[in-house]
What we know:
Elements: H1 3-32, H2 37-40, H3 43-53, H4 55-68, H5 73-85, H6 89-110, H7 121-158, H8 162-178, H9 183-196, H10 203-225, H11 232-246, H12 254-260, H13 262-282, H14 302-333
Helix pairs in contact: 1-3, 1-4, 1-9, 4-5, 4-6, 5-6, 5-7, 6-7, 8-9, 8-10, 8-13, 9-10, 10-11, 10-13, 10-14, 13-14
Amino acid sequence: xxxxxxxxxxxxxxxxxxxxxxxxxxxxIAMSSYGLLQNTFPYLGExxxxxxxxxxxxLAGFIAFSIADRPGIAPGVAAGxxxxxxxxxxxxxxxxGFLAGYTMELLKIVFKRLPRSLNSMKPILIFxxxxxxxxxxxxxxxxxxxxxxxxxxxETIIHLEGVPLLLTALILxxxxxxxxxxxxxxxxxxxxxxSVVHGHQSIxxxxxxxxxxxxxxxxxxxxxxxxxxxxxxxxxxxxxxxITGISFITEGAIPFVKTYQHKIHLPIVIGSMLAxxxxxxxxxSVPAPHGGLFVIFFMSSWWGFLISLSAxxxxxxxxxxxxxxLGDKNxxxx
Length: 334
């Protein structure tokens, strides 16, 4: 397996386990700040804040788990916890997860020739102790080097406003539609996650979410409006994109982009950029990094999110129709 793909796989494994903690934590904090719950049930906010403290340990723990299986969990969780208290953030947690995982792989080799009578001690004593010990020492260096940059990055992302926020949203909106679930998409998404991971309402995360919803929703609308442009199988697949789209699952657009390439790809990139831009104009913000329309009532200026989605979808669909018509015309004259 390609080494670059392995690294991507390990990081995505960590993110897949981490995201539910951020989503649940962010939504519970948001719930505790609205209406009657604000004064009568602050416990929800405390639970949400507690869940968010698990973000980095879970991220690092499951990166290490992806590398070294179960022996990697304890040192990985320790690395994430140390990244949290050491202020090295996501970057520190990711590096810590890799250090923990590969440390455990090395320890497996080192202790491979232990007498069989001691094998039962490996998973409950030897691996956890030496794994955590070595990883903790490594994290002293990671936190020292990474924390200044990580603090600056998080503060910059959280406090973006005005023109810098608009330009950032446009760029990240485009990146969300470039490979739709691939590494570029995930890098853009991670920036949004950074903006909400400490319990913040984030305009940038709302812009990224809207942009990521445009590809499947625009294709679903195009299939609905222009049925003759698509095969029967594509029409059936297009209907499914309504569900994936409103759920903020971008990957539903991939089969169509593979088939029609630039005729669909460029229009949905442009539509995603428009949606992201309008979200910043309406100052719509969201407390969680996932959920799509299912978290809309936790958004500020939620109506702006609906307008932004609608505008992005319509622009994408119109541009798709134009590019497909031009492509068909060129084929006829060729």
